Amino acid sequence: MYGKEEAQKLRKEFWTAFGIFMQKHRPLLGNKTRWVNYRTGIRHMYFRLKADNKTATVSIELQHKDEEIRQLYWEQLCELKTLLTNTLPDEFVWDENQYNDAGMKISAVYCQIEHVNIYDKNTWKEIFEFFERNILALDEFWHEFKPIFKQLDD
Q: pTM (2 decimals)?
């Protein structure tokens, strides 16, 4: 078990190391991207990378407070499900109704690996490779389909 400061230091080291690991890639949309904080350019729609002491998760999260608008984005995402599924290297779970860490109702498409630990450097490579293959696939999908979501956002 790590103390609060040591855990915070390891998390920072992990995300810094992942950023360095991903420097070899450029996003398809040509903008400089911080892969850890991928900006979709669409309000309330996020690509998330999360890691803790048990799992690592890649997700698309729809967090609009207005349930009808969130539902509209969810329906659009579902219309593209086959295309997205064919792009993604791992199997993703589609969950229309879940709650984020702040207790807000969201919709999410996510994939998770278990038995990894952000505090164990021996599992970092596995996490990095999991994040890499999935965030690059999401970037490829986003390059093609962002305009559809941009129309909803306007």
A: 0.92
